[in-house]
Amino acid sequence: MLEVQNLSMRFGGLLAVDQVSLDVKEHEIVSIIGPNGAGKTTVFNCMSGFYKPSDGKILFEGGEVQGKPDYKISRLGMVRTFQHVRLFNRMTVVENLLVAQHRHLNTNLLSGLLKTPNYRAREQKSLDRASYWLKRVGLLDLANVDAGNLAYGQQRRLEIARCMVTEPKLLMLDEPAAGLNPSETRALNQLIVSLKEDYNVSVVLIEHDMSLVMDISDRINVINQGRPLASGTPDEIRNNDDVIKAYLGEA
Amino acid sequence: MPAHNLKHALFCAVVTLIIAFPILGFNLVASGTDIVLEGAKTQTMISVVLAAIVVFLFQLFRDHIMALLGKAPALNPLANREPMEQSKRLKLESTFLTLIIIGALIWPFFVSRGSVDLATLVLIYIMLALGLNVVVGLAGLLDLGYVAFYAVGAYTFALLSQYLGLSFWMALPIGALLAALFGLVLGFPVLRLRGDYLAIVTLGFGEIIRILLNNMTNLTGGPNGIGGIPDPTLFGMEFGRRVKEEGNTSFHETFGIAYSSEHKIIFLYLIALVLAVITALVIRRLMRMPVGRAWEALREDEIAARSLGLSRTGVKLSAFTIGAFFAGFAGTVFASKQGFISPESFVFLESAIILAIVVLGGMGSQIGVILAAIAVTVLPELAREFSEYRMLIFGAAMVLMMVWRPQGLMPMRRIHIELKSQE
């Protein structure tokens, strides 16, 4: 489904990402792990179109997407979250979800101004979809609260819900468990698995929480100092000497 | 009292003297063909010194005075009130607005000609400010050249009537659409820029339009402007004493009433009122539509908005174009009201005033912007008695406003879409 081939990203003299490859098949959770500053988020930024990679190819469902503008990539069905939560703070929770469905709504100005039945039906549909996802992530009671007033864990869940209402095929999560307490992390774990199982979404995950990564990943890619270090199933990674030395540490 | 206060106060007093003495202390007097420099009256000199003393004392006791002033806002009992519930607030707002509109419809028949004329100008500014509010308040794009679109609307009508003989009603949609087209074409290369850069480029664009109008003498008459712009007609009835165009009738003859020049003024006022109400309603609706949410989302967090598939250029362009459209509306009405336009009417100061209205009213807030438009247009008229000091008073009012209420007269309260509990 997604194939990253020999991706490199250079900032001036700094080679932040060097020849990284990874692939994600349908119905799969793939993690990217590595020490801080290894270039994980840079890979993400290239994949989601925020950076134009210096070299390499990114294929999504067979088509090249490297260098395409971010909003076009997102419309293809690759949607991401951010390491630091980015919500529309002064809009309410439900409005955050409506913004994300911009594309699904009737954008014809006239039918909106005149409130045609067709427009109303679509607006209702997007409200329904929003409330479905709010229920799914347990925020339905807070639907009319400003997003900026939510607790941190709730903001994280809202960000994932906001991605899901766009009906993505591939979800890219950048450290979704950062700042969550253990019980919240467990709930997140279940949520991500259910996204894969029930909604047929593939997930690429950047995460430092090893219990989460080892639990839910189908495959793991390790990056160290911009270079690929290892890739394989959680068991293979856990027992890989290089990875232990560079990242996991010896027990 | 700390020593640095004394030093600072002395410094301020000296600066006051340095500035005030040459400006007020000398007069240029014409004697014959020459101009002679004379010292001012002793009275003026004394006031200059007094002013310096006031400045000195204020700076010396600055901390105490500001502390006293800081307590002043507490006098407002409404300041810390709980915000009203949204449904209740909306109901109150719409009743309030309906009453105002009914009042505005009846009002011109009982007041003087001058007031109605001024009110028409206020309505034009309301249209302009509501349009700019979309660009600045909702989409967060600082546009300092907004007056350009106003000029496009006004000149479209003037030129169409001069060369093609089109009437007001034909020119109104054309003027607005052409202004919107200008917004679209000029917005396209500009909107990649952000913040300060955007402000400077739009500023330049506003000046370009004005200078073009000034220099394309063949077409626009240059600084001489275009005169003889026709008044609007009511179903083919003209408001002049005599009918100018074949096939038209005159208003006073049709209804068998005595001719009065006031009819025309009131008619123009009513047109402006209807257009302003339409502007307000359309924008109010847009704010609750997907496009309105997209404007706000982009203002709140551009990166997040883009990651969700919102095209930055598309969303910004829509705001720019819609803002320009309403400026074109206002321009057409302005041209018709004045009967004569020249590039003089579309200088940068106009853009600045419209922006000031938006900021004073509270960015994004419609009622606030309407109130501010009234205040900014009417206050200088009321302050006419102070003649040359009125701009000074206006400026002082603005500064005070920004110090005490930086969020504007009526800060924006977003109209939320509420999710009704569905069980």
Account of the protein in words:
The complex is a heterodimer of chains A (251) and B (423). Chain A folds into 2 domains: 2-86 and 168-248, P-loop containing nucleotide triphosphate hydrolases (Rossmann fold, 3-Layer(aba) Sandwich); 88-149, no CATH class. Helices cover 39% and strands 24% of the residues of chain A. Chain A contains 10 helices and 10 strands. Chain A has helices spanning 40-47, 70-76, 93-100, 109-113, 117-136, 152-164, 182-199, 210-216, 234-238, 241-248; strands at 2-11, 14-24, 29-33, 55-60, 63-64, 78-80, 170-174, 202-206, 219-224, 227-232. Chain A has a 6-stranded mixed sheet with strand order 6-7-8-3-9-10, sandwiched between helices. In chain A, a hairpin with a 2-residue loop joins β1 and β2. In chain A, α3 packs parallel to α6 (152-164) and α5 crosses α6. The two termini of chain A are 36 Å apart. Chain B has 423 residues and is mainly alpha-helical. Chain B folds into 2 domains: 3-68; 93-404, ABC transporter involved in vitamin B12 uptake, BtuC. In chain B, the strands form 2 sheets. Chain B has a two-stranded antiparallel sheet with strand order 1-2. In chain B, strands 3-4 form a two-stranded parallel sheet. In chain B, a hairpin with a 2-residue loop joins β1 and β2. The longest helix of chain B has 27 residues, at 312-338. The radius of gyration of chain B is 25 Å and the shape is globular. Chains A and B meet through α2, α3, α4 and α5 of A and α11, α12 and α13 of B.
Average pLDDT number of chain A:
89
Architecture of the largest domain in chain A, CATH level 2?
Answer: 3-Layer(aba) Sandwich
In the CATH hierarchy, the architecture of the largest domain in chain B is Orthogonal Bundle
CATH class membership of the largest domain in chain B:
Mainly Alpha
Keywords:
A: 251 residues; alpha/beta; Rossmann fold; 6-stranded mixed sheet; 4-stranded antiparallel sheet; 10 helices; 10 strands; globular; B: mainly alpha; ABC transporter involved in vitamin B12 uptake, BtuC; 2 domains; 67% helix
